[in-house]
Amino acid sequence: MSEGKMKFLFVLILVIAISVMSANAQDSTFEICKNMEAFAEQVMENRQDGVPMADMYELIMKLDVPKEAKESMFLILKAAFKEPRFSSEEYKKKAVVDFQNTTFLSCMEALKDK
Prior knowledge:
By secondary structure, the chain is mostly helical. 78% of the residues lie in helices and 0% in strands. It has one domain (3-111). The chain has helices at 3-24, 29-48, 53-62, 67-80, 89-111. The model has no long low-confidence stretch (mean pLDDT 82).
């Protein structure tokens, strides 16, 4: 497994674990959305580095997590691949930060009444 895939898998597992713990501890919307933002960051970094979508999709499919968690991860993955891929480091970094912010905002808006 490549270093990019290993890093992605590690972050994926970490985000899931934190999200599950957060949900169990009735943690704040902010903490849950920060975890989703971290996942979005890794997905977009991998996307900008040329990691194939199918590889990331396969890693998510193999996880033993609740269906809702997988669905959220797939939505983020699909959204990342709708964004352009850049060659310059400056534009790659901007794409990552923009995607993180969009994910965080969407999460906060979706959970504001929960």
